[in-house]
Specification:
heterodimer, A: six-stranded mixed beta sheet, 60% helix, B: mainly alpha, two-stranded antiparallel ribbon, globular
């Protein structure tokens, strides 16, 4: 399989449409590097592929994300609840385009659970649509979900590969199962089981024939017993498997519920916070309104501030004019008494000489003018007016405003903001309350308890199936021995059945032996490839290689041919990466590998070795990395010439990332 | 002026009902706040006082409205009103102001005092 292009719509942090092309493997530049800080959407790209193939996106605990949490938040806030992933790729059968999407049901306002969405799935091969019923089987054939962990590889989960070293660990068993599926072991196991059924059927017919004869009653009886027994055990195993499946199903459902409960708990906290905030805003409004009312009692003063200023100005002007006039009158009075003195004494006060008649006449004329001017003035009235004006000015000077407008404006703004916030919070609160309405804390406790019981039950059922399978194997073996014996004894008209039984028995033995041989062979090959990769990747030259155990766990062999008992976190990561490469080389040499944050624990030298070796391990390599694990400036030399395309995920705003092309 | 503090003053019956509504609807904390604001608004708007038509309803003692004679002194100073007629003028101005307030409240559901203060900030008004 060769990946060509992926387009996302509203997928997790990618608002609207986001696209990325994949480098073609036929050139030497088969590496796509995608940089992105934490929380920008690297794992979401991995999940987008997983979603497109398997309709599931997984978190770090390998739990499925609820679909409503996968739709981009910016889009959902705008009421757009659609999400889709379109993947174009090529196989031996031609060009394919796989589109998987979800859309909110029209009857739902805010989707809370997966069933609130309707799904769509479309596959086109060489431009022609493939029938809906065949799409899932096509995907399963091309990239079985059980094996997806080996090509959609999350570096953060490398830890779980350490479990492969622990015999009997549950996680290790699960990964072992996945590995065997990748390696094709189940094909042989299924073949052997099919042959066993054919053999049993043939024996039943043969026995009916043989029953007509005498001398072998005991063997026949024994075979009949074994048939009954194996049929019963097969039935038991079938029943146990059904129970196990039902148990797993229920546990997974509860697991989803528990995740949902955790999410709801967060919502409850959010709801409480919102309730408190609404309360605070309401208090702000009540306080603001009270203050506003109190301030309005002084409104009348504020309304008159300009008028008072205006009046004060005019009063001051009038007062000033009156004062100037009063000063002028004082001058005139002085002149009057001065002139009257000259006429009375006939002597000039300046030169002490007698005043001539001509001058006396002029002085008299002037005296008349001054007397007339002074008699026209109401001096007393002016003085009174000045006093009145002073009183009025005094009255107004006592009057002042208090910047009421500014304070009122502030309060109005505060009240408006609080009102807006209350509406926002109330809307959120209503949505949260609807979500929380159906939550029952007692039911949650019961579910947690049930979850534990189911986990234990699953373990017990798995052990029972194993025991019963071993019993079945033993009885089959006994039955087959008897069958062979009977076939030797009889060689008459039942020869056809005998031959069939013979061939089937031999084939079964071949299959049984082959399973063991294949397992051993595969393990050796995984060990060989992984060791080869390990030697390339590790910087510690004294390590001889890796040794595989029954679980496909890998031990490091040191220079004394002994198993290294203590391994560093970095060494664990190198071993796990070696295993992934080993498995890829055996089974998926022609497939792409997507690796998310694969260098977390590695030092620079190891990172350099890994970067150099990785492009050789897959036909297309997509590396999703952050600056902390790969420094663009110094770490990329070993891989630079292999990089077909380099991209970066950048944040446009919270909940909105986009993919941009960068040059190295 | 002390004589004046024993007088009761008010509005027309219609004006009184409107001021009561403004108080009840939370525009003013007390009716007297609206009454004084009405007087100030009418002066600031250069409204000429006219005798109140219709039946009058006395509501407030002068002492309540004109604490420390602040309102009457201001009205007398600003409008050159005689001592004897100052409270009659105050009533007329209050009537004009309250009617205007109520009109705006009825039209818009609120009274934008901030905008009002902004308009009267300029001395030319």
């Amino acid at each position: 399989m060769i990946l060509k292009k992926m387009s996302l719509i509203n997928f997790m942090p990618f608002f609207g449409k986001a696209e990325l092309d994949f480098p073609t493997p036929d050139s030497n530049m088969n590496v796509l590097l995608v940089f992105g800080d934490n929380m920008r959407g690297k794992t979401s790209l991995l999940n987008a592929m997983r979603w497109c193939f398997y309709q599931v996106a997984l978190d770090r605990n390998m739990k499925a994300y609820p679909w409503n949490s996968m739709v981009n938040k910016v889009a959902s806030r705008k009421g757009d609840w659609t999400l889709s992933v379109n993947l174009k790729f090529e196989t031996d059968e031609g060009e394919h385009e796989l589109i998987r999407g979800i859309e909110k049901r029209s009857s739902v306002i805010t989707p809370l659970k997966d069933s609130d969405f309707k799904t769509s799935l479309l596959l086109k091969t060489n431009g022609k649509p493939v029938a809906g019923s065949e799409i899932e089987s096509f995907i399963q054939r091309l990239v079985p979900e059980e094996t997806s962990r080996f090509f959609l590889f999350d570096g953060e989960l490398l830890q779980e590969y350490e479990d492969l070293l622990q015999e009997g660990s549950r996680q290790g068993e699960a990964i072992k199962g996945s590995i065997e599926k990748v390696l094709g072991v189940p094909a042989l196991t299924n073949g052997r089981n099919e042959l066993q059924l054919i053999l049993k059927d043939a024996n039943r017919i043969l026995r009916a024939e043989q029953g007509k004869r005498t001398g072998h009653e005991r063997q026949l009886e024994k075979m009949s017993e074994l048939e009954t027994l194996t049929t019963a055990i097969e039935g038991d195993i079938e029943e146990l498997r059904d129970k196990l499946a039902s148990c797993s199903r229920e546990r997974k459902e509860i697991e989803t519920d528990i995740v949902e409960v955790d999410r709801l708990f967060e919502k409850k906290v959010e709801l409480d916070t919102l309730t408190n905030r609404i309360k605070e805003h309401k208090t702000t409004i009540v306080d603001g309104e009270a203050e506003r009312l109190a301030l309005r009692s002084g409104l009348w003063r504020e309304l008159l501030v300009s008028k008072v200023q205006e009046k004060l100005t005019s009063l001051h002007e009038e007062q000033e004019a009156l004062r100037q006039r009063k000063d002028l009158n004082t001058g005139k009075s002085y002149m009057l008494s001065h002139l009257e003195g000259i006429l009375e004494k006939d002597i000039c006060p300046t030169c002490d000489q007698e005043v001539s008649e001509g001058h006396k006449s002029k002085i008299s004329k002037k005296l008349d003018d001054v007397r007339t001017s002074l008699s026209e003035q109401d001096v007393d009235g002016a003085t009174n007016r000045i006093l009145e004006l002073s009183r009025m000015i005094g009255n107004l000077n006592d009057f002042s405003g208090s910047n009421l407008a500014q304070r009122l404006r502030f309060i109005e703004n505060t009240i408006d903001k609080s009102n807006i916030k209350i509406i926002e919070h109330e809307t959120k609160k209503i949505n949260l309350e609807i979500e929380l309405e159906s939550t029952d804390s007692e039911a949650i406790k019961r579910k947690r308890g049930r979850y534990k019981i189911l986990l234990q039950e699953e373990g017990r059922l798995e052990r029972d199936i194993e025991t019963q399978s071993e019993n079945l194997e033993k009885y089959y073996s006994e039955y087959n021995t008897l069958s062979e014996l009977m076939n030797i004894t009889y060689s008459d008209k039942t020869s056809f059945l005998n031959q069939k039984i013979n061939i089937t028995t031999h084939l079964m033995n071949v299959f049984r032996d082959s399973i063991a041989v294949l397992r051993d062979d595969l393990k050796l090959r995984v060990e060989e490839y992984a060791s080869e990769a390990f030697k390339q990747l590790t910087t510690q030259q004294k390590y001889k290689g890796l040794q595989i155990n029954d679980n496909y766990g890998l031990n490091i062999i040191d220079h004394r041919d002994e198993i290294l008992s203590i391994r560093s976190a970095g060494a664990e990561q190198i071993v796990a990466l070696s295993l992934i490469i080993g498995l890829s080389k055996i089974n998926m040499a022609n497939g792409p590998v997507v690796m998310d944050t694969p260098f977390g624990r590695l030092d620079r030298k190891h990172r350099s070795s890994v970067l150099k070796y990785f492009p050789e391990s897959a036909n297309q390599l997509i590396l999703l990395v952050h600056d902390g694990e790969v420094n663009k400036d110094v770490d990329l030399d070993p891989i630079k010439e292999r990089v077909g395309l380099a991209l970066e995920i950048v944040e446009v705003e919270p909940d909105h990332s986009k993919i941009v092309r960068i040059s190295l | 002026m002390n004589e004046k503090s024993n007088t009761m003053i008010g509005l027309s019956e219609n004006g009184h009902s409107k001021l009561k509504i403004l108080k009840e609807d939370g525009i003013f904390h007390e009716m007297v706040d609206g009454y004084r604001a009405g007087v100030a608004f009418a002066i600031a708007s250069n409204e000429s006082p006219v005798p109140i038509s219709g039946k009058k309803q006395t509501t407030f003692s002068v002492g309540t409205v004109d604490r420390k004679l602040a309102v009457s002194t201001l009205v007398q100073t600003l409008l050159d009103v005689d001592d004897s007629e100052v409270y009659a003028i105050i009533e007329q101005l209050a009537e004009i102001g309250v009617q205007k307030f109520y009109h705006e409240y009825e039209e818009t559901g609120n009274i934008d005092f901030i905008q009002m203060l902004k308009i009267f900030e300029s001395p030319s008004q």
